[in-house]
Structures are given as structure tokens and as C-alpha cells.
Specification:
Strand content: 15-25%
Number of domains: 1
Number of helices: 6
CATH topology: Aminopeptidase
Number of strands: 11
Largest sheet: 7 strands, mixed
Length: 273
């Protein structure tokens, strides 16, 4: 299942699958789709759901701690997304492999698409890649994931849709502590975020950041610009702080908060189309 922890003992990468592909036939797919026919107006995506690496790439030269850390995935995000999918009866598309293999929320020409280092950690398995190496990762992981999102959205036909992208963020980055409990981000279209901000700011125990810790732009983001902005779908990128998502119960509480807030704004949000 996408989002589960990979077996990440350090070993040499075995030979690649027959035919020059990236994934062997018995490996999990590039994405997972849950409840594709869900009745909610929400469509959920989780770009960094998993820290799995393809068998033929081994551990990318990294140790277990690195592949369990935020550089490899968004810890807790998939748990929130799956529970939110249940609460809202919403379709969910999750990525199946680590953002270090290829980041499904980065443009393909971004240096962070297949990073050689992340948060000061060198990634040996991403150094000196050939054009063919890069193409294999795009073809096997990036393209199928985004094709799956398009298919889910297209299948809705004329039904209105609201795109919710679920992420998590590390509490400390670059030596600076991040105070927000949750961040709601947008780029060109702030309409859905403004509604959701209004629904979430009444809880004094939750510090909500607007375009914190990140905003969205075409240089560093892919999913919202392509599947939200370009299609005219109202959207929000939701970031929850990772130290608030350490258990399934934590994730369920956050999913419950988001579901309650979404239900409150849904009628107004649907009028944005």
C-alpha cells in the first residue's frame, strides 16, 4: 500500500527489471487510488505519501534514518489523507514512491525533481544520472501518478470539484522553528484558501498559517498549477506540522478537523466555479 515504510536496510542495488524498466512486475505501482467514485466535491491528492524506493535503486545510498525522515516523504500525510477520504467520501490519489526517486510535486526541469542533495543530505543514488536514467523515473513514476489524477478528475464529468493536496512539514528547517500547526497555501487563486482560513481560525489551539511555510509557484510546484490552476479547479495545499502527526490517532484528529471545516465551507466553495 502506498505510504507504508519501505525496507530500507543499506545494500547494493540489484540489477534492474527485465526490459530496462524501473519497477519489477511484483513491486507496488506508481500510485494508489482510493474511492475513485466518491460522492464528495473534494478530490484529494497526496504527492509525498511514501518513502518506498524501487528495488533496482536500492536505498539511493542512504541509511534508514534518512529514508524515514522528511527528506524522503511527508510523514503522516498519507494517514490524514486516507482518513479524510473516508470522512468526506472523496477520491484520493497517492504517490507510491519516495520524493527522492522523483518528486511528483516538482516541475521536471526543477533541480529538486531528482535532487542530488536535500536538507544538507547528499543522495549518492541521484548523482551523475544519464538522460535515460531520468526518463525511466519519469515514465515509471511521475507520469502515471499525474495521469491517475487527470483520470479521476475527468471521470467526474460536469460535477464540480475542489482539489485538496495533503502534505506535512518538518517542525524545524534551516535551524528555525516553524510555529504553525497547519498551513494553507495557494498561488494565483486564493479563493478556496480564504474560505478554509475562515473556517479554521476559530480554534485557539491551532495556529493556521496563510501561505506558510510555503506558497505555491510554477518554479517549485507542479500538482496545484497543473491540476488546479490550469483546469480552473478551486484548490488548496494543506500542510500539517509533522510533530502533530506522530500516531494514527493524531492523523485522525486532523482529518476530523479538516472534514468539519470543509463541510462548513463546501456550499460557498462550490459557488466559486
Amino acid at each position: 500500500m502506498a505510504g507504508s515504510k519501505s525496507e530500507i536496510g543499506e545494500q547494493e542495488a540489484p540489477a534492474g527489471p527485465p526490459g530496462g524498466g524501473l519497477l519489477a512486475p511484483d513491486e507496488p505501482g506508481a500510485f494508489a487510488v482510493t474511492n475513485p467514485a466518491g460522492r464528495s466535491s473534494a478530490v484529494l491528492v497526496c504527492d509525498h505519501a511514501s518513502n518506498r524506493t524501487p528495488r533496482c535503486l536500492g536505498t539511493l545510498g542512504l541509511g534508514p534514518a534518512d529514508l524515514l525522515s522528511h527528506i524522503a516523504w511527508d510523514p503522516g500525510a498519507a494517514m490524514v489523507a486516507r482518513r479524510l477520504s473516508e470522512l468526506l467520501d472523496a477520491p484520493l490519489v497517492e504517490s507510491g514512491y519516495s520524493r527522492l526517486v522523483i518528486d511528483c510535486n516538482r516541475p521536471l526541469d526543477s533541480p529538486e525533481s531528482i535532487p542530488e542533495q536535500s536538507a544538507g543530505v547528499s543522495i549518492p543514488g541521484n548523482r551523475r544520472l544519464s538522460a535515460e536514467d531520468r526518463a525511466r523515473r519519469i515514465e515509471a513514476l511521475f507520469t502515471p501518478y499525474h495521469d491517475a489524477i487527470r483520470k479521476v478528475v475527468d471521470a467526474r464529468g460536469d460535477r464540480p470539484g475542489l482539489l485538496l493536496s495533503i502534505h506535512s512539514f518538518t517542525p524545524v528547517f534551516g535551524g528555525r522553528r516553524r510555529p504553525w500547526s497547519i498551513g494553507l497555501s495557494y498561488g494565483r487563486d486564493e479563493r478556496l484558501v480564504k474560505l478554509l482560513l475562515g473556517a479554521m481560525t476559530g480554534d485557539e489551539t491551532v495556529q493556521v498559517g496563510e501561505n506558510e511555510p510555503y506558497s505555491i509557484d510554477d518554479e517549485t510546484d507542479y500538482t496545484i498549477p497543473v491540476h488546479g490552476e490550469a483546469r480552473g479547479l478551486p484548490h488548496v495545499l494543506i500542510e500539517i506540522r509533522q510533530d502533530l502527526l506522530t500516531t494514527p490517532a493524531d492523523a485522525a484528529r486532523w482529518a476530523g478537523r479538516l472534514a468539519e471545516a470543509f463541510r462548513r465551507i463546501e456550499p460557498a466553495a462550490l459557488r466559486l466555479r
